Amino acid sequence: MLTGKTPTDGSFKEGLNLHKYVKMALPDHVMEVVDPVLLREVEETSSTASDRMRGIGNDKALECLVSIIEVGVSCSEEVPRERTNISHVVAELLRIRDILLGTRRHGQRTCMRFSKWKMKVVKEGRGSVGASCRK
């Protein structure tokens, strides 16, 4: 959904699969695996005047995209018991939504943080969302 690739894509060979492909790209090379069509849409929507007024620029949109992809990676672990609990997933997705909609301010509440793609609760800092809510 986010990469534009299917799990059976012909580029996945020699033990590489969609999960490993995306996991290897996190967090610094995520732009290399995200579907270019999705990136264009993110850039277009995050550069509108209303987004700038709410403080949502390309950097924040990218941080949220990385967080969404981290959720996907944590939910698609091969071993079911290693997958993140669904209630934590929902909380993280709601947090990301609130950031994108501008209904959440930094330091207001706790956020869910993926540490090695596992969920942990941490206190949000005064810095950027990506610095406080990302690996």
How would you describe what is shown here?
Keywords: Kinase, Receptor, Transferase. InterPro entries: LRR_receptor-like_kinase. This is LRR RECEPTOR-LIKE SERINE/THREONINE-PROTEIN KINASE EFR. One of its GO terms (molecular function) is kinase activity. The protein has 135 residues and is mainly alpha-helical. It has one domain. Helices cover 47% and strands 9% of the residues. It has six helices and two strands. It has helices at residues 18-25, 36-46, 49-54, 58-75, 86-101, 129-133; strands at 110-115, 118-123. The protein has a two-stranded antiparallel ribbon. Strand 1 and strand 2 form a beta hairpin. Helix 4 runs antiparallel to helix 5 (86-101). Residues 106-135 have low confidence and may be disordered.
Brief characterization of the structure:
Helices cover 47% and strands 9% of the residues. It is mostly helical. It is flat and about 40 Å long.
Features of this protein?
135 residues, mainly alpha, 6 helices, 47% helix, kinase, transferase, receptor, kinase activity
Task: Summarize the helices and strands and which ones pair or pack.
Elements: H1 18-25, H2 36-46, H3 49-54, H4 58-75, H5 86-101, E1 110-115, E2 118-123, H6 129-133
Antiparallel strand pairs: 1-2
Summing up helix and strand content along with how strands pair, one would put the structural category as mainly alpha
For the largest beta-sheet, the strand count, sense and barrel status come to: 2 strands, antiparallel
Individual helix count:
6
Distance between the termini: 22 Å
The total tally of domains equals 1
Strand count: 2
Order of adjacent strands in the largest pleated sheet:
1-2
Binned, the helix content reads 40-55%
Mean pLDDT: 75
Order of helices and strands: HHHHHEEH
Radius of gyration, in angstroms, nearest whole number: 15 Å
Please mark out the parts with pLDDT under 50 across 5 or more consecutive residues, or reply none. Answer: 106-135
Fraction in beta strands: 5-15%
Shape: flat
Keywords: Kinase, Receptor, Transferase
GO molecular function, one term: kinase activity
Organism: Salix purpurea
Protein name: LRR RECEPTOR-LIKE SERINE/THREONINE-PROTEIN KINASE EFR
